[in-house]
Q: What sequence folds into this?
């Protein structure tokens, strides 16, 4: 099943390293702050829920460029690939700027709706206002990443991620604790550290994309500023269903966090920490999902339907192997893992059973993510949006019932997410496998290169 997976690993491993580095930024922030003040810990957790949600929606919309560039490269139509790349720089930057205005001016109102209370409320507002400046560079980085992933050149993504993470840890230490004459800025220091380190990624990406000879087409700066709106509409149409999918998932997550904030001031912090830790498993196989999207997209352009199918299943097999290894580690060392992020023994003992339970969620979630990326690679970005509608309704309804009516609290949340991922994994896998002839051939036939 895994024979001939060389191209998958070539694309996947750099992405895994880059995403792991990005996730470490978040975990380092939370670990340092959690040992200073548990309220900082909760504030970052509440901030990351809406910010990560909006950021994920933006990146999902930007993924339309990845799909179209990959399909054009597969069809050897490099001029069209170049045009998609050029129009995406400005197009992909429009929504992040709007999101910045929302977070910078509307965050106090947002957190109040989420049920965040003082003093966590004030800490969360301060943190997200600084962090939101990252949105000014999201469109640029996302477009560069789309170009590189569409072509299959992902090593620079890994290198940039490592550099960014090292700088983030250094600036965290300096700004949070107040080293080298800087004042101890605590939670604001963590936000500034992330902001500064992320901005360093921009010149690395731009120089590589604009100057590297391995790029099979030449991007012209003057064409970027001309902004071909008619062509970008194709990118937007391809990406918007994925954006809608992430928006719906995030909406369900926001409801869950608001429910937990009604129970206890620390409940949302524990929940977001556990899912951040679980996110490590996603990161360790997400590269295989991205590889599936890229290679399935290229095979779409080449009209190689069966190869696209086989590639996605190889990626899924690799992802499930990763999940198995991570699940074993989480089950053996739950307290040691949680102890990295807080010195509160009672909190560690309370959260340990939840971390073990979370390992059950990993496997159906891996099916949804990898199969979903494979589906998008063929040009069909709507199906996962439709199944997410069902998932969001289920999450909001069932979590409310289990948390409040059944009195299960946090257990109700994790049971809900297990049910959601399991049900949708069966639906998506059956749609992919049983209906694959209809499912794949129609998207292939719709591609106009």
A:
């Amino acid at each position: 099943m895994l024979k001939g997976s060389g191209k998958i690993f070539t694309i996947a491993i750099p992405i895994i390293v880059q995403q792991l580095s990005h996730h470490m930024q978040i975990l380092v922030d939370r670990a340092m702050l959690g040992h200073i003040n548990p309220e900082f810990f909760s504030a970052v957790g509440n901030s990351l829920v809406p910010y990560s949600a909006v950021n994920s929606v933006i990146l999902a919309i930007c993924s339309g460029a990845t799909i179209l560039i990959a399909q054009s490269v597969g069809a050897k139509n490099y001029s069209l690939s170049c045009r998609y790349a050029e129009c995406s720089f400005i197009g992909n930057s429009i929504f992040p700027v709007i999101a910045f205005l929302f977070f910078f001016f509307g965050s106090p109102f947002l957190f109040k709706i989420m049920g965040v209370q003082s003093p966590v409320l004030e800490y969360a507002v301060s943190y997200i206002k600084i962090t939101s400046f990252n949105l000014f560079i999201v469109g640029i980085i996302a477009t560069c990443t789309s170009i590189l992933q569409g072509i299959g050149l992902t090593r620079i993504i890994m290198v940039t991620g490592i550099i960014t993470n090292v700088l983030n840890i250094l600036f965290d230490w300096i700004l949070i604790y107040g080293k080298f004459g800087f004042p101890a800025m605590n939670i604001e220091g963590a936000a500034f550290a992330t902001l500064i380190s992320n901005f360093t990624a921009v010149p690395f990406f731009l120089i590589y994309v604009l100057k590297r000879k391995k790029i099979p087409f030449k991007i012209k700066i003057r064409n970027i500023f001309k902004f071909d709106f008619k062509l970008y509409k194709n990118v937007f149409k391809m990406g918007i269903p994925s954006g809608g999918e992430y928006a719906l998932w995030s909406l369900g997550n926001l409801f869950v966090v608001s429910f937990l904030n009604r129970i206890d001031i620390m409940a949302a912090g524990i929940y977001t920490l556990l899912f951040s830790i679980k996110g490590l498993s996603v990161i360790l196989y997400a590269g295989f999902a991205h590889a599936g999207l890229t290679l399935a997209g290229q095979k779409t352009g080449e009209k190689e339907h069966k190869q696209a199918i086989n590639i996605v299943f190889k990626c899924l097999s690799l992802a499930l192997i990763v999940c198995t290894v991570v699940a074993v580690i989480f089950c053996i060392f739950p307290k040691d893992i949680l102890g990295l992020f807080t010195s509160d023994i009672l909190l560690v003992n309370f959260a340990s059973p939840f971390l073990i339970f979370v390992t059950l969620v990993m496997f159906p979630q891996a099916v949804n993510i990898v199969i979903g990326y494979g589906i998008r690679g063929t040009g069909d970005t709507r199906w996962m949006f439709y199944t997410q509608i069902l998932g969001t309704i289920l999450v909001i309804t069932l979590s409310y019932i289990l948390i409040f009516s059944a009195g299960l609290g946090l257990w109700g949340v994790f049971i809900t997410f297990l049910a959601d991922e399991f049900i949708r994994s069966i639906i998506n896998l059956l749609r992919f496998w049983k209906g694959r002839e209809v499912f794949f051939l129609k998207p292939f036939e719709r591609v106009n290169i």
